[in-house]
Amino acid sequence: MSSDGRQRLGVELGSRRYDIVVGGGLLDEAGQHIGPLLKRPRVFVVTDSTVAGLHLPALAAGLAASGIQHESVVLPPGEGTKDFAHLERLCRALVEKRCERSDLLVALGGGVIGDITGFAAAILLRGIGFIQVPTTLLAQVDSSVGGKTAIDLPEGKNLVGAFHQPRLVLADTGVLATLPRRELLAGYAEVAKYGLIDRPDFWTWLEEHGAALLDGDTGLLGQAVATSCAAKAAIVARDETETGDRALLNLGHTFGHALETEVGYGDRLLHGEGVAIGMVLAFQLSALLGLCPAADAARVQRHLGAVGLPTSPRDAFGHGLGPDAARLIQHMRRDKKVQDGRITFILARGIGRAFIARDVDPALAERLLAERLAA
Ligand code: NAD
Ligand code: GLY
Hints:
This protein is of the alpha/beta class. It has 2 domains: 7-178, 3-Layer(aba) Sandwich (Rossmann fold), CATH 3.40.50.1970; 182-374, Dehydroquinate synthase-like - alpha domain (Dehydroquinate synthase-like, alpha domain), CATH 1.20.1090. It contains 13 helices and 11 strands. Strands 1-2-9-6-5-3-4 form a 7-stranded mixed sheet. It has a two-stranded antiparallel sheet with strand order 7-8. Helix 4 links the parallel strand 5 (104-109) and strand 6 (129-134). Helix 6 (181-198) packs antiparallel against helix 7 (200-214). The longest helix has 21 residues, at 218-238. The mean pLDDT is 95. The protein binds nicotinamide-adenine-dinucleotide and glycine (GLY). Nicotinamide-adenine-dinucleotide (NAD) is lined by residues 48, 50-51, 54, 77-79, 82, 109-113, 115, 135-136, 138-139, 142-143, 146, 148, 157-158, 175, 178-179, 183, 271.
């Protein structure tokens, strides 16, 4: 915690290092944080229409207080915005507004806005800088940190993109007050993920404080966001482009993506909800393989269920409506993390002891899925 009550962390990537600042009311003082990074007092804010209505005025005032002008581009909300048509619209709007190579884009929104703005910044004028101002819990603890930027193709999510690190992340926990509870919970799954990967003490802390945090305790939210960002920053610093350890961040994602693919990306199953179910399955598979105590798998399911997240593949479908397990395994085989035809699973030897496994027999995962779909 620094003297101004903000938590400041660094993503240590040499010449591309950057700060993450976490705290309430950061939008109001955005200009103080952003100003020192600018060549001229002007930024280009990219946001969606929902966030624009709720939080753009505060950001605009926070910039103006430091004499920084802004132009804004407002895109529609939702995953459908992460496509070539909106990327073109965004790039053309920025060129029209005379964005220059030394200017910075500011992504004000959730992961959708962060991902498309970051990708536009990676390619516009052969690459310009950008700042993340994440407004969902998921974006504050995951997508705004680490420099993965992308848009989707009809063939799959995030298939066109680039690694392009932001210059700064400003995570204003105050903006989470307007986030629908379901979205907050979906982000909480990613928070819990860090405890399960390599921070067992954080997991225990979440078991104690998770419910209060989700009820809006801003102090607890700030602590959870900062701890999550520190956990992610440490992994990104040792493996920026996912040639090794960064794959740990996909805990729960192999199963989760298969479920998302099956139900169709959208409101029926939010990404974080799929990750919650996937993390429970990853621990159950680890227990089935004799790698992890069954009690740890039960503990994961108990806590995620207690805060209100779905924890079984059955929760993703209506009663008796689910696919068969073999179909979900087929979705996993098409995942972009497949290597030499083998599905990558992130398993665990216990809470906080996740590891990457490339030699799991998919028949075992299929058996587990069949059991869970029938249970
Ligand atoms: P999102 O950006 O679609 O936001 C969810 C909804 O909440 C939207 O309707 C948005 O308008 C609204 N919203 C945002 N902030 C709000 C606020 N403060 N108050 C009220 N409403 C608000 O979704 P998301 O869950 O933030 O992000 C999902 C995206 O992130 C996916 O496209 C996923 O692929 C991507 N992602 C990227 C990474 C990465 O490393 N780059 C990691 C995880 C997820
Ligand atoms: N969200 C996974 C990653 O950033 O690698």
